[in-house]
User: Fold these one by one.
Assistant:
Number 1:
Amino acid sequence: MADGYMLEARGLTRRYAGFTALNNVSFALREGEIRGLIGSNGAGKSTCMDVLTGRGKNPIGTVRLGGEDISKLSQRERRAKGLSRSFQKTSIFPDLTIREQVRLAARNAELDNSEEVISELALSSIADRLASDVSYGDQRRVDLALALVGRPKLLLLDEPAAGLTVEESLSMARMLRDLSERWKLTVMLVEHDMEVIFAICDRLTVLHLGEVLTEGDPESVRSNPEVIRAYLGSSFA
Ligand SMILES: Nc1ncnc2c1ncn2[C@@H]1O[C@H](COP(=O)(O)OP(=O)(O)OP(=O)(O)O)[C@@H](O)[C@H]1O
Ligand SMILES: [Mg+2]
């Protein structure tokens, strides 16, 4: 990682039958950075995460993780290299206990840190309950726990706080910030809640119609007229 970047993406592109969902998107994240990926519905945020993880057909572009080119690797191989993600919709199994599913995820990981992850995400007191039996807010923390199994280097989170109350969202944001500092975890976070974004992100990348509109620190992005016009609206002016 001679240049100090944990993640370097160059020219990420995805076309669906003539429609370009992602067009020549590039960015680079330093180790331990929390990067917010924002933009309107359909801007290409989830598609960007798909291409980074090697999901779907014909990913175009170069992805480097810790300096190593992983562009040709499968999703599973990228996960083994330390690239983890959570999905926009919950991916937990309702019929398993929380502990059972964290352990199940850990079976594929080199490092079994199930108990650490359960305690870090404040799931200890409910770990033996069925996932279907706990609150929605707890389920979203289980999603995060599953993505943290094996202590990944890079975590891609697609709206982890969607549907949570403001209080639950900010509590999750604080957990993430804390973990990222202690584990040197690099995070790319898709989030619509600007309070969460501004509370924890070091830098933001703004996508618009599949392209990078701008990138910068939260304050400069917040006051960028183009971003306000395309995404944030006048309430942030
Ligand atoms: N499998 C697919 N086939 C065709 N078009 C797709 C497919 N997946 C995504 N798209 C289109 O690509 C564009 C980007 O979608 P994407 O899901 O990446 O947006 P997003 O920024 O994650 O939006 P949201 O905030 O709603 O989650 C959209 O216009 C979407 O309709
Ligand atoms: Mg999305």
Number 2:
Amino acid sequence: MSQFKKHVFICTQGPYCCFDGDTEAIFERMKRQVGACGLNEEVRINRAGCLNQCGHGPMLVVYPEAIWYSGVQADDVDEIVNEHLVDGRVVERLCFHAPPGNNKHVDHYPPEVQAFKDAAERLQKEREALRQATLRLLKERR
Ligand code: FES
């Protein structure tokens, strides 16, 4: 038995969903609403990187049911919490029915979004290189 009954993963760190809506506001409102409903011990709300459903965002997924929601905006959060997380009823109007796997459709984004994506990938590589260098330093000190 896991610690939490449900996990909600919200794509806040992927390169596209943050241009489809205010993913941080969705995350903050989801956490607040789950707390207000007394579900903090049962439902874990997590920020997530890209969920490979880009272009349909903002995306979130609820496990263990594996129910995907697309085009979610902050104003939709209370409905998802009250209907799905509290009462166990899927919010069909936001449900994302897609075949398993990668369902990226990103051709409609303007070039500025691609530039953002490229910059984010560069920063991620720099972060990883810095992490590796720090790990090497820590090993040398032991
Ligand atoms: S950027 Fe959100 S699913 Fe890819």
